[in-house]
Amino acid sequence: MPRKKQAAFAALNLVCKIAPRIRDIELLVVDVDSQKGPNKGLPPTTKFPGGDEEPEDMVDPRFTASRELSEETGLRWPEGIFPHRVHRIQVSRKHFRVGYVLLYEECEGELRTTPTQGTKGVVSPGYWMTVEELREQDKLHPNHREALDDFVRWAVSSLGLQY
To answer: What's the pTM value of the predicted model, to 2 decimals?
Structure first.
């Protein structure tokens, strides 16, 4: 049987709410209960909303990130706004992952309150975790930890926050 072609990239969304006090940044995450693939049967994985490119994404990670945010959370990127890219890593010779930061207040739509079926499993409704919680609980999917670190570097340099 022929192998499925690996997507050229995966894109994820770092949707954040920034409270007035320093170190009070919350990030939107979802839990994925994998029903197929190597993670089938394992406990759900916490990750940032996102996923692999699909043909309709026109080979642009921004379209992938926007589509995945809508599919997994019900939120949408605002029309004409392309959030700041804070993460890019070469995963293999033919595959890379990018992450975009978006303020929750800029999002359109409503946060979904029920689970949905994704391509890899059941996706929980989105919920908020602080940077400290994500680091302390060690719940974040390993592939998304580097994006969290890049987000923190961006927050320190762009927003003047201290970690």
So the answer is: 0.86
